[in-house]
Write a structure and sequence with these properties.
By secondary structure, the chain is mostly helical. It is built from 13 helices and 2 strands. It has one domain. Helix 1 runs antiparallel to helix 2, helix 1 packs across helix 8 and helix 11 runs antiparallel to helix 12. The N and C termini lie far apart (54 Å).
């Protein structure tokens, strides 16, 4: 049962990065859009993510519940030593969701729109940034469980080159996901070309940010590259991610947008798999020790109950979620009426 719960944990993290990341990326894309095309970009992003943006946070909730119930030591360690980036991440998610709703449903469409747009764009950037910072800190070995001062315990582990570089890499991935997904939502050739150009730029930024991650790891003595190259499985994952990149652009040029979306999701999945498998079986790397998920699991009764709840819940929740996505993908394109 522990293995099943761990599989649900990693699946939830992956799904949140793919679907929630694409939502965050919509704001990142808007940030890099010229003023002349911002209104059209906002309209397309709302058509794409408006119906399901809140449902994507289900994956984050599942992740938190699994850690809280099944792996309380992991939950408490993250909540204590990384409470600052966790709080900033959650505040960013709240601010983004609030601004997203208000800027579309506020009866006064002129007065506060600039403020809502500003909050939406910057929180869309900061939320994945801190999500990546959390991931980078967890695997960096910078957390000192015996730290004697506030900065050493709660600031220095995540305020460093490597965690921030992972945060920037996460931001770039989110922008890349959103750009590719939005190409398929565009209704005109002009809009498709607009998002195709953005996808190319975000793809380049993702490669640069990925190189920055390895540079930061090397400078800080983190054996990230060595860990990936030591495992045939991680090497295979990286090779598959690399091979799928030219195929993605081939499908985009030929207007096979759904195939391109699937391949982009596959690329991100392989990158995330290689990242976490490189430190396997550890889940968190501390300054002088590691934390292995199976060793941090709750008692058998708790894990059995949690596993059954996840299995039963997935039977009802997953089909409903995918049907929700399918339903809104089939709806006709209807521009929002301006008030």
């Amino acid at each position: 049962m522990v293995d099943i719960i761990i599989a649900f944990l990693y699946l939830s993290l992956l799904m949140y990065l793919l679907f929630g990341g694409a939502d965050f990326g919509a704001g990142i894309i808007e940030f890099f859009t010229s003023d002349a095309k911002k209104d059209r970009t906002r309209l397309l992003t709302y058509q794409a993510i408006g119906p399901i943006w809140e449902a994507n946070h289900m994956w984050l909730i599942i992740t938190i519940v699994i850690l809280f119930v099944g792996f309380p030591k992991v939950y408490s360690t993250v909540s204590i030593f990384l409470h600052i980036p966790v709080s900033l991440l959650l505040l960013g998610i709240i601010a983004r969701g609030t601004a997203f709703i208000f800027r579309h449903y506020d009866p006064d469409q002129g007065k506060f729109q600039p403020l809502y747009n500003l909050i939406f764009v910057y929180s869309s950037f900061l939320s994945p940034l801190f999500l990546g910072i959390l991931a980078g800190t967890i695997i960096s070995g910078r957390i000192d469980l015996e730290a004697a001062s506030f900065p050493e315990a709660y600031l220095f582990p995540w305020l460093a080159f490597f965690p921030i570089s992972v945060g920037l890499f996460t931001v770039a991935i989110c922008g890349y996901l959103a750009a590719v997904f939005l190409i398929g939502e565009a209704q005109t050739h002009e809009d498709q070309m607009l998002f195709r150009k953005k996808a190319i730029r975000m793809n380049v930024l993702t490669v640069v940010a990925g190189a920055l991650v390895f540079l930061a790891a090397t400078l800080e003595g983190i054996p990230l590259l060595a860990g990936m190259l030591d495992h045939p499985i991680t090497i295979l994952a990286l090779v598959l991610a690399s091979i799928s990149l030219p195929l993605t652009w081939k499908y985009l040029r030929e207007n096979f947008h759904m195939r391109a979306r699937i391949l982009v999701g596959f690329q991100v999945s392989m990158i995330l798999f290689a990242l976490f498998y490189s430190i396997h079986p550890a889940f968190m790397v501390f300054k002088n020790s590691v934390l292995i998920l199976k060793d941090a699991a709750a008692g058998p009764a708790t894990m059995n109950s949690l596993g059954i709840a996840l299995l039963v819940g997935s039977v009802f929740i997953l089909p409903s979620l995918f049907y929700l996505i399918y339903s809104f993908q089939k709806k006709p394109f209807q521009p929002l009426a301006k008030k």
